[in-house]
């Protein structure tokens, strides 16, 4: 094998250090897309959730209320249940594009609730057996539910993230200044949110208890995420960043 030394091959080929210009471009890139870094939370959530799904299978605390037995199984509600994924994504994307402050609040609200859910499921493994009483047919909706049940176990239930995140998505869209006069969009969002919440119990994904605890968690976290504390924190962060920019700009000025 042919060997090269630094003198023979050229110093510039061995220099892995970024130039001042490249460092500046990197800082600008990070600064421009810094809010997107909040989505790195999924790197924590998804592996943790997958771990719970794979480990909480047989031994868990059974979640059940008498009201669960009175609720019929309606496979058609799998449609709003699946729409949840797009609904939450739209809330993130819309607030990111139109109101960064609301985007940050949405992330704080949703990610805090999701973390609480993971902690609860870890220290208190839980699940239900309501699916055992359901006989699925061969219709389109029944087949969709059959596929859903095969991929999403009846464990790790409360607080229901489907319910909690639906509430969070609706709050994000309702608070948007751009949508203040868009009553049609607000009504559609409210209808979808309610449909998703109903879907969790109609297709036997969750107990009423899971819905109630998700609603309670939303009530508790709303003033935390949307109150004065986050707003003041954001303002302090802006002031700190502005001060840093001024210090860098005038660092060589003699006062």
Concise overview:
With 255 residues, the protein is an all-alpha fold. It has eleven helices and two strands; from the N terminus they run αααβαααβααααα.
Query: Rough shape?
Result: elongated
Count of separate DSSP helical elements: 11
Give the overall pLDDT as a whole number: 85
What is the β-strand count? 2
| Helix and strand composition category | mainly alpha
Task: Report on the biggest sheet.
Answer: 2 strands, parallel
Specify the helix fraction band.
Answer: 55-70%
Strand order of the largest sheet: 1-2
- Listing every helix as H and every strand as E from the N terminus to the C terminus, the arrangement reads HHHEHHHEHHHHH
Percent range for β-strand residues: under 5%
Computed over alpha carbons, the radius of gyration is 24 Å
Q: Termini separation (Å)?
A: 60 Å
Low-confidence stretches: none
Commentary on this structure:
The protein is mostly helical. The protein has a domain at 73-240. 66% of the residues lie in helices and 2% in strands. It contains eleven helices and two strands, in the order αααβαααβααααα. It has helices spanning 6-9, 20-32, 42-55, 66-70, 78-98, 100-123, 140-151, 161-174, 183-202, 208-226, 228-249, and strands at residues 61-62, 126-127. It has a two-stranded parallel ribbon with strand order 1-2. Helix 6 (100-123) packs across helix 10. The mean pLDDT is 85.
């Amino acid at each position: 094998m042919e060997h090269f030394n630094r003198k023979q091959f050229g110093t510039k080929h061995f220099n892995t250090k970024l130039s001042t210009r490249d460092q500046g471009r990197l800082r600008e890139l990070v600064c421009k897309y810094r809010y997107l870094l909040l989505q790195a939370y999924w790197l924590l959530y998804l592996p943790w959730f997958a771990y719970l799904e794979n480990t909480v299978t047989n031994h868990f605390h059974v979640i059940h209320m008498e009201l669960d037995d009175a609720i019929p199984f309606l496979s058609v509600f799998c449609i709003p249940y699946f729409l949840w994924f797009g609904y939450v994504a739209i809330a993130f994307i819309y607030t990111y594009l139109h109101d960064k402050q609301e985007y940050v609040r949405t992330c704080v609200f949703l990610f805090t609730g999701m973390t609480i859910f993971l902690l609860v499921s870890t220290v208190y493994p839980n699940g239900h057996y309501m699916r055992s009483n359901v006989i699925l047919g061969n219709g389109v909706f029944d087949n969709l539910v059959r596929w859903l049940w095969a991929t999403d176990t009846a464990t790790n239930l409360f607080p229901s993230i489907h319910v909690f995140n639906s509430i969070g998505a609706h709050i994000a869209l309702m608070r948007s200044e751009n949508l203040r006069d868009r009553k049609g969009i607000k009504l559609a969002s409210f209808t979808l949110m309610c449909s998703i919440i109903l879907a969790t119990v109609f297709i036997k994904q969750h107990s009423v208890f899971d819905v109630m605890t998700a609603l309670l968690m939303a009530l508790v976290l709303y003033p935390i995420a949307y109150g004065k504390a986050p707003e003041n924190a954001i303002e302090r962060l802006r002031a700190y960043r502005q001060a840093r920019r001024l210090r860098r700009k005038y660092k060589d000025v003699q006062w």
